């Protein structure tokens, strides 16, 4: 029962992190589009914030998924398959 609840918790954490990533990207893209329409001259950060945010998510997400995979206590081969699917 503990193992099943840990795996359910791990899947909930993965879904929350994916939903959070989607929301952050949507928010930054929407903000960037509004700034392009309002301001004639953009700063360096405003020009590149979408790229920076996507890069940070791409760097952080695999590490977070690896920590979640340790919760699931799968065989390393099975864990690798889930990691690649995520």
TrEMBL record:
- Give the highest taxon in the source lineage: Eukaryota
The entry's keywords: Membrane, Transmembrane, Transmembrane helix
Q: Transmembrane stretches, by residue range?
A: 6-29, 50-71
Q: Does the keyword Hydrolase apply?
A: no
Question: What is this protein called in UniProt?
Answer: Transmembrane channel-like protein 3
Instruction: Quote the gene name from the UniProt entry.
Output: TMC3_2
């Amino acid at each position: 029962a503990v193992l099943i609840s840990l795996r359910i918790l791990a899947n909930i954490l993965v879904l929350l992190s994916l939903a959070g990533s989607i929301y952050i990207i949507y928010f930054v893209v929407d903000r960037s589009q509004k700034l392009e329409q309002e301001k004639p001259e953009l700063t360096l950060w405003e020009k590149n914030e979408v790229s920076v945010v996507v890069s940070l998510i791409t760097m952080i997400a695999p590490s977070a998924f690896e920590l979640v995979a340790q919760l699931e206590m799968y065989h390393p081969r099975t864990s690798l398959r889930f990691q690649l699917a995520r």
